[in-house]
Amino acid sequence: MKLIKNILFLFVVSLISFSCDDGLDLLPTDKITADDLFGDPAGTKLYLADLYDRLPIEDLTFFPKDGFNFNPGDPNNGGFTSSMLTMTAHHSERNSFINGNYLNWWDDAFRLIRDVNLFIDIIPTLSNTDAEKAAYLGEASFIRAFAYFGLVKRYGGVPIIRTPQEFNGDPESLKVPRNTEKETWDFVLSECDIAANSLGETNGRRASKWAALSLKSRVALHAASVAKFGGNITLNGDAVNQELVGLPISAANAYYQICIDASANIMNNSPYGLYKPNPGTADEAAENFRAMFENPNIALEESILIKGRTIPGEGFGNNYDIWFGPAQTRNGWPHPGRYNPTLEFVDLFENYSNPGEDGKIITTADANTENYDGYQPSRNYVRYSDPLNLFADKDARLRATVILPNSTWKDENIIIQAGLITPAGKAEIETLAFTFAAGSIYSSYGTLDADKHSGFNPQGGNNTKTGFGFKKFLSTEPVQPAWNRSFTDFAEFRYAEILLNYAEAVVESGLGSQTVAETALNATRRRAFHQTDIPLTIENVLRERTVELAFENKEVWDLMRRRTYHTVFNNTRKHALLPILDLRGSAPFEYIFVRNRIRGNDPQTFDVREYYRNIPGIGLNGLIPNP
Predict the structure, then answer these.
(1) Minimum mean pLDDT among 2-11, 171-180, 541-550: which range?
(2) Closest by alpha carbon to 405, among 338, 467, 327, 328?
(3) How far apart are the first and last CA of the chain?
(4) Read out DSSP for 471-494?
């Protein structure tokens, strides 16, 4: 205790701004003792606010290379998100892929764990009631579980440190060996139990019993997947031999059962449910879904834990609106349109008329959806007077998540056009060209003015290269053309994820209730205005998971935990849908669509060694390296 009382806690201005109460009177202004800090309830609240802010929540300020809370004054990282490392999205300028520079989180993780351990150590000395101390312990356990989850899913087994370490002059005394991967997963789950048993039903913006159980559901599903599918890859080395990485397949069903039980507890006993689960029309379903991500606070019945970003100021905002909105609504910002949903992603959304199947976009009379060889004059293309007609039968979540060609966004008709066919039959595709037809001049990109279209023009890298724009999380307000001026809150845990966790755990294990799991699977579809239920299969669950949770930074970890990254990305290209205006014949002219490779998208291959990140500093910390 003497050690803790002598520690000087450093607080920066960003930490102080988390408090809604009056700030502490600090003398000197940057240092206070533990007694001063925790002797005031506002100080304890400030300390907890800092711990929450440092959680490894992959919200709208997370970038896979730059890390968490990446909000410097000029966060000019190009807007490269985790989804762009999967098949769901592509960056308009970059062709980066996962390597050792991505998804790391080590030093900051153990700093957070150290500070949580300090808090846990001091809780018994506080003058609060026993109930308040129990709640503090629950929050600390939740934070420590979240931190270790962020580590174990990246590195496998890591050192489990339960108490603050004290330096006695011997660096060797601070070295802690790695626990096995199984020990680490089990520790995370045990911390979730402490949190769930200590926390109340509600806790404002802080962790509650239901947030702890949501974390437990996610953690257990991840561990179960690693156990079940770990045999799909072969890794070698001391870390493998000592079980520092990997889980036995025999452990899978126990973890699946933990996921099922935690999810069922939330489904049966919590106050949470889907936001507006029974829309009257597909248009209503689309707007409900879109609005929930613009502001999750309108959907408190679904948002189990929200990370708030509503405090204006340097370092708190995100840059989704300036990076990712279409070029036509940039409002003077020079770098829009960087987030491009792929054709593979759009193909996943079911058609209402054909439930339970991928709704692949059919562009030709022979319905060949595997031809990616570009425009071929001999093919019989289906023609559309309005590009939106191609998507008329699609799941409503598509138009809520993606900006489609010729759709309306912020009162602008978003023009996404990849080319044209001249009256003489010449194809001008993904190149700037002009031609005269029916008394007017036509541009291959849809308008003569580069500022008036949002697709395919390579100027500045500000236009979609896939045929689709990004919509999820964007504000309907005009873009503020400056860094960190979007303050979108982020729902880290949603009830929809719990439903899909339950469904996946049941279908993969055969445990739990098949009927309940099928109902859970179809509940999120019903919210999207589907009228026909589909059976419980792993294909249906994974499709539903992808379209429901898209761009919420879970896709990478789904590929990681199920050990499918290396099969999905094996000399793999992503693809685009090219809207092309055909000027042959007489006006009004019609559009054809071409399924094609994304321009500049080189084939990508996942190295199985990337399932575990490299541990830094092994020369100093003496830890056994990952394969």
Answers:
(1) 2-11
(2) 467
(3) 40
(4) -TT--SSPP--STT-B---EEEEE
Buried b (16+ CB within 10 A) or exposed e, 203-240: beebbbbbbbbbbbbbbbbbbbbbbbbbeeeebeeebb
Could you read off the pLDDT of 367-389 as tens digits, one per residue?
999 999 999 999 999 999 999 99
pLDDT value, residue 550: 98
Q: Which residues, including other chains, have CB under 8 Å from residue 372's CB and lie 6 or more apart? A: 573, 575, 595, 596, 597
Give me 71's structure tokens. 């909000």
- CB distance 347 to 360 below 8 Å: yes
535 cis-preceded (ω within 30 degrees of 0): no
Neighbours of 533 (CB within 10 A): 15
Identify which of 73, 45, 530, 615 has the alpha carbon closest to the alpha carbon of residue 319.
73
The answer to which of 58-62, 325-329, 481-485, 547-551 has the lowest mean pLDDT is: 481-485
pLDDT at 312: 57
For residue 152, the surrounding DSSP H or E stretch is helix 130-155
Task: Please spell the DSSP secondary structure of 552-594, one letter per residue.
Answer: SS-HHHHHHHTT-HHHH-SSB--EEEEEEEE-SSSSSPEEEEE
CA–CA gap between residue 5 and residue 220 (Å, rounded): 37
Both structure tokens of 335: 């770098």
46: tokens are: 């400030």
As separate numbers, helices (DSSP H) first and strands (DSSP E) second, the chain gives 20, 16
Are 165 and 156 in contact by the 8 Å Cβ rule? The answer is no
For the entire predicted model, the pTM comes to 0.93
Is omega for the bond preceding 28 within 30 degrees of 0, making it cis?
yes
Could you give the CA distance from residue 21 to residue 19 in angstroms, rounded to a whole number? 5
Smallest Cα–Cα separation from 517: which of 533, 543, 536? 536
Share the mean pLDDT of the chain.
Answer: 93
DSSP secondary structure code for residue 382 in this structure: -
